[in-house]
Amino acid sequence: MNALKIKLPAEYPYLYETHLHTSQGSACAADTGSEMAKACKEAGYTGIIVTDHNWGGNTAVNRHMPWKEWVNAFVKGYEDAKKTGDRIGLDVFFGYEAGYRGTEFLIYGVDKEFMLFHEELRTATVERQYRMVHEAGGMVVHAHPFREEYYIPEVRLYPGYVDAVEGVNAAHSSHRSKSHNNAEFDEKAVDYGRQHGLPMTAGSDIHKTDLLGGGMAFRRKLKSIQDFMEAVRNGEDYLLTNGDDWFAKDGSRIMP
After folding, report:
1. How far is CA 74 from the centre of its chain?
2. Is 149 part of any domain?
3. Which of 60, 70, 110, 196 would suit a FRET pair with 256, their CA atoms being 20 to 30 Å apart?
4. CA–CA separation, 162 vs 62, rounded Å?
């Protein structure tokens, strides 16, 4: 089990993991939603957003299943984490990571019911995805926009079709990370967000209970995923972290 114990700034005591995978939904993940929830609670998180890979990414669910069966199977990781979170006192919110030819987006503010009634999500372009999520009251965040990996054929940017940018991805720069290690990916993401006036988020992109400690720290406890989205959109005061260092919401490093 993860031994990480996160030390939070006194004025920002509520930490949320915004980018988390489970083995039920993501083929690249090692631990179940319940196991992830327990590890995050022990590490000091207030809440987590489960963001498993959808059909366009490294999903653990058979893409050829009928749509409703696929959705019901896909949400198992979230439901498992939520059940455990309710029991141990960890807030668990739903999201997913949408893949489009290697480019990935974190989708927040929609739910299982939305997915069940919108099979057209499977073939939606980035632009159509943005409109559909917005019509449902959700939010689109460009995940690790400058990551370079074998499964990402090229960097594609869509500043007009995202609400925010993942400026800090702990997998890129945490000393605990064992993959995607290149802090320059985050530096480019922060510059990009500033250039286009986009809010920034932070998450660990975590796939197992050996946590990195990344995420977003708030002055107050968030009530829901809608509360999280409003905080980001409205420029509320929060901090970003990769588990090692702390950054202001514009990506500026905060010196100790």
Report:
1. 16
2. yes
3. 196
4. 28
How large a percentage of the chain has pLDDT more than 70?
A: 98
Tally of domains within the chain: 1
Beta strand extents in the chain (DSSP E only): 14-20, 47-53, 91-100, 103-108, 139-142, 164-169, 200-203, 215-218, 238-241, 246-248
Identify whether 147 is part of a domain.
Answer: yes
Residue with tokens 């690790």: 144
- Name which of 7, 121, 214 is nearest 130 in CA terms: 121
Q: Are 33 and 84 in contact (CB under 8 A)?
A: yes
Q: Which residues pair with 53 in a beta bridge?
A: 97
Per-residue model confidence (pLDDT) at position 255? 65
CA count, 13 A, side-chain hemisphere, 224: 7
pLDDT in tens, 41-99: 999 999 999 999 999 999 999 999 999 999 999 999 999 999 999 999 999 999 999 99
Q: Is residue 254 part of a domain?
A: no
* H-type alpha helices, 31-169: 33-43, 67-74, 76-88, 112-116, 126-135
Give CA–CA dist 9/160, Å, rounded. Answer: 34
Q: What is the CATH number of the domain that holds 117?
A: 3.20.20.140
The predicted-structure confidence for 154-201, as pLDDT tens digits, reads as follows 999 999 999 999 999 999 999 998 878 789 999 999 999 999 999 999
Percentage of residues in the chain having pLDDT higher than 90 = 93
Residues 6+ apart with CB under 8 A from 42: 1, 2, 5
Task: Give the pLDDT confidence of 207-219 residue by residue, as tens digits.
Answer: 999 999 999 999 9
Burial of 50 (0-12, 13-18, 19+ CB in 10 A): buried
